[in-house]
Design goal:
Among the domains are: 76 residues, Substrate Binding Domain Of Dnak, Chain:A, Domain 2 (Up-down Bundle), CATH 1.20.1270.10; 94 residues, Substrate Binding Domain Of Dnak, Chain:A, Domain 2. The longest helix has 50 residues. Helix 4 packs antiparallel against helix 5 and helix 7 runs antiparallel to helix 8. The chain has 353 residues and is mostly helical. The relative contact order is 0.04. Keywords: ATP-binding, Nucleotide-binding.
């Protein structure tokens, strides 16, 4: 009764396990072929292991007779040859073929064509560089002149001209980045010359204003220097008493005209504004200064003639004093013969003693 009650308790569990196994077999039933193949592989592995073990126990030179005793086996000739061939090894020599091939060389015609193409490319690069330089020159002139119009050139241009020139510079700048982006070299050269027609007068006024004071000062100093020489000549200065009076009159007249020219130009220039063209240019003042040097310097700096009177007197004195020196020389000359005889006599007496 107790056993039956326990079986009744575990019966649901047993049925459940059996049910799960049945479901597993339904999903993937066991294949008999797989089981057979696995058994064959296992048997083959076992046979190979037994064969290797037996081969390890018996050496190749030993055999087992029918009585069970081990005897040495004699190798055959074929086996010996095989062993010798395995030990020695085989050497096979093969000829290595060597082929020579010359480097490829270009033909003269093809080489000349390459050289010609290279020259053309160099020329194209040169032309392109010149074109870019011309374009950059226009752009640089626009930026530089526009900057100076607001600083150093501002005093030398009227407001009306300033507005016109600023508009021209702005139009040129826009043209460079639009239609003038890729133009031939000559187009840029012409554009630069057109801009300089507007800018050079202003630049010239500025340069004249800066350099004119120095040129006028140099000319004034030279005129004053010549006037001092004329004044010293009038005062009978011994440094200029050898100068020709007629030539000095020419110098006085020239200096007077130069002074009048300088004063008139300076007065006229002072009346003009900075925006007007100068009355006298720096080049004219420099030319006037050189003309003064060429005319006056050879006259006022003429060297004095050499004085020969003093030399003649010295020569005459030397000739007059010559005979006296000769007489005094004969009178004062000692009598060497007499002294020598006395010296010989005294020496002779000493020898006698």
């Amino acid at each position: 009764h107790i056993i039956f009650s326990k079986l009744m308790r575990i019966q649901p569990l047993i049925f459940k396990v059996l049910h799960l196994r049945i479901m597993d077999y339904r999903r993937e039933p066991p294949r008999l072929a797989d089981y057979v193949f696995s058994l064959q592989d296992k048997m083959q592995v076992d046979q190979e292991g037994a064969h290797q073990k037996c081969h390890a126990e018996h050496t190749p030179e030993e055999e087992i007779d029918h009585t069970g005793a081990k005897t040495k086996s004699v190798p055959s000739d074929k086996q010996e040859r095989l062993n010798q061939s395995i030990k020695k090894g085989k050497v096979k020599s093969i000829d290595l073929p060597i082929q020579s091939s010359l480097c490829r060389q270009l033909g003269q015609d093809l080489l000349n064509s390459y050289i010609e193409n290279e020259g053309k490319m160099i020329m194209q690069d040169k032309l392109e560089k010149e074109r870019n330089d011309a374009k950059n020159a226009v752009e640089e002139y626009v930026y530089d002149f526009r900057d100076k119009l607001g600083t150093v050139y501002e005093k030398f241009i009227t407001p009306e001209d300033l507005g016109k020139l600023s508009a021209v510079l702005e139009d040129t700048e826009n043209w460079l980045y639009e239609e003038g982006e890729d133009q031939p070299k000559q187009v840029y050269v012409d554009k630069l010359q057109e801009l300089k027609k507007y800018g050079q007068p202003i630049q010239m006024k500025y340069m004249e204003h800066e350099e004119r004071p120095k040129a006028l000062n140099d000319l004034g100093k030279k005129i004053q220097l010549v006037m001092k020489v004329i004044e010293a000549y009038r005062n009978k200065d011994e440094r200029y008493d050898h100068l020709d009076p007629a030539e000095m009159e020419k110098v006085e007249k020239y200096i007077s005209d130069a002074m009048s020219w300088l004063n008139s130009k300076m007065n006229a220039q002072n009346k003009l504004s900075l925006t007007q063209d100068p009355v006298v240019k720096v080049s004219e003042i420099v030319a006037k200064s050189k003309e003064l040097d060429n005319f006056c310097n050879p006259i006022i700096y003429k060297p004095k003639p050499k004085v020969e009177v003093a030399e003649d007197k010295a020569k005459a004195n030397s000739e007059h004093n010559g005979p006296m020196d000769r007489q005094s020389g004969t009178e004062t000359k000692p009598d060497t013969t007499k002294d020598n005889s006395q010296h010989a006599k005294s020496s002779g007496e000493m020898e006698v003693d």
